[in-house]
Amino acid sequence: MTENDFVPSGYSHQIKSGKATWSAPSNIALVKYWGKKRNQIPANPSISFTLDIAATTTSVSYAKLTQSQGPFSFELFFEGNPKKDFEPKIETFFARVEKYLPFLRDYHFIIETSNSFPHSSGIASSASGMSALALCLMDLDRQMNPAMTSRFFKKKASFLSRLGSGSACRSIEGPIVQWGDHDDTEGSSDLFGIGYPYKVHNVFENYQDTILLVDKGQKQVSSTVGHDLMHNHPFATQRFEQAHNNLSELQQVFANGNLDRFIAIVESEALTLHAMMMTSHPYFILMKPNTLEIINKIWAFREANKAHVCFTLDAGANVHVLYPEHEKDITLQFIKNELVAYCENQQYLCDKIGFGAKKM
Ligand code: PMV
Predict the structure, then answer these.
(1) N or C end of the chain: which has fewer CB within 10 A?
(2) What whole-number distance in Å separates Cα of residue 41 and Cα of residue 2?
(3) Residues 162-196: pLDDT tens digits?
(4) Residue nearest to atom 4 of ligand 1 (CA)
């Protein structure tokens, strides 16, 4: 498929007004996306677990304007209150997707959004937020073209989400989503995420993710800046190649359920992501001392108990603790006894692998 396949060739129905509500989950990458080309095309393929509980719910009310083709017309409410500082993001998103949703200047939109997790928790809401918004707009797109298949609906929702925030394209479906061209994955695309198409061992069913909130402050370096620093990065070529190889190996791991290899790939990916940050120019560090304390505790516990708990990180100090469901009791006990002390205000969020966005 190409970008042009997402440009509507015309609409069969006219819609005056209405409202759509979608809840879209966050996701946690196992093989990380870090570095991009123009138009949010990833420099390497990535794969993630879709989460279940960490989600954004967005309602979009729309009413057709009598005079269209002026500036975008919308109001934005976050948790019930007008949110001016989110408006430029929406404006940029509308401008990027207008070609694929040509009705955007014809309506006044009221966007109401809220998260299932505290806003200042350091849990990124851009993936869940952008995908929930894209799904609401797709709802209107589909009403004007009811012949649209649900397969195309999901693809286009993922395609549009990607233009809002790259990793958001992995938040439409579940439980495992892959994004980015990869020779060993049929149907993979740089343009949208696809549900992982191969066999997954049942040890990954209900895989747990406890998110430890180590630092709830604003990140010093945004992911947009971080992605940019992969241009001319001294290790970029090797890193992008490594991501392709890790994805290929992960396919075997998903099939045979080898958790030792799973852990090795996932932890190496997390540390490589942060190593890329530390070796870019300018260099930066997003981990905090407590991030490292937690990692060391996880390693010691895993060794002592022959357990299968591991960690991953996104672009921040928080730690995602991943473990199979059959080790839930001992791992949660360990988290409460030994890790929660390193969280800001002892805060953490128990999540698990989920099945994708839902229409409300
Ligand atoms: O979607 P963005 O541009 O916020 O980038 C997300 C990048 C990571 O979270 C660090 C990795 C990933 O693949 O989700």
Answers:
(1) C
(2) 12
(3) 999 999 999 999 999 999 999 999 999 999 999 99
(4) 223
